[in-house]
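seq:
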Amino acid sequence: MPKIRVLVVDDAVVVRSRVSKILSSDPELEVVGVAANGRIALAKIPHVNPDVVILDVEMPEMNGLETLAAIRQTYPQLSVIMFSTSTYTGASATLEALSLGASDYATKPSNLGNVEAINQHIREDLIPKIKVFGAVTSPSFKPTKIAHAVAFPTRTNINRVDVVAIGVSTGGPNALATLLCELPANLSVPILIVQHMPPMFTKLLAERLSSKCQIPVQEAVSGVIVEPGHIWIAPGDFHMIVQRDKAVVRLATHQQSPENSCRPSVDVLFRSVAQVYGAGTLAVILTGMGQDGLYGCQCIREVGGQVLAQDEASSVVWGMPGFVVNAGLADQVVGLDRMADEIIRRILLDQ
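struct:
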């Protein structure tokens, strides 16, 4: 199988050198070029013909956003992974890049002096994404049927929806913007979301979505009462759960061990809503890499809740929804453009 060809674009020579060295150590990858800014990168692309571009955000002469816009004009199908810091500026620019068509992003290690930590971060965070977007089939991310899948019967009656729980990862910011902006302001249930992102990113994502949607979107805070007509996003590096407190349900966040290498984890949230809301749970599993949410969906189906999964055609990566569909856990597979209507339909069925 041919290697995935990677172009590394970053103004810092130490970053270019380190990233190139780690990527080249993987037998499935080949670094075909490096560039110190966007202008050099654009000149190199037709000569080195990369499958994936690793693109820094803040660069002199031509920054990452300007470079991305130029790449999308000439090479609309070329995969671009933003490689940015998790500072406020870096996170904001990365979210803007995703809205402009970046395939995904990875955060730069904060401590460039710790060589082994840098190597591990690149291997665990960046390389898997390069392989996904470089179109190399990877057993780790290819949805397959699981041996212990539970066969749930097709249901003719649908329970009342009391909460909508959404799990999403790669491609999530744009998917959430599409979905949430189509929901009405008077929605009669709360919405809880786990989006795989670092701390600063989830806060900025909530602010961006809230500015566009009819329903207020906030980053979750422990102790808040879960009420209809509100949307909460799990904060980066914290799991989010719900807890019943007499007549109300409250949010709680904690930093127990990651699940599926994720914190926040979709499985953690989904298990929690299954325990608290039972059959009144409507789970929505959207585009994303890996299989976080698979066992949470099984928990929701076991208590009589419903599960909707995004279809492959509209997913950036059909990993998370693909695992759920192939495990027989989805009540319905829905395109992103129809997901809001389907959620509203199911909420209104019992009203």
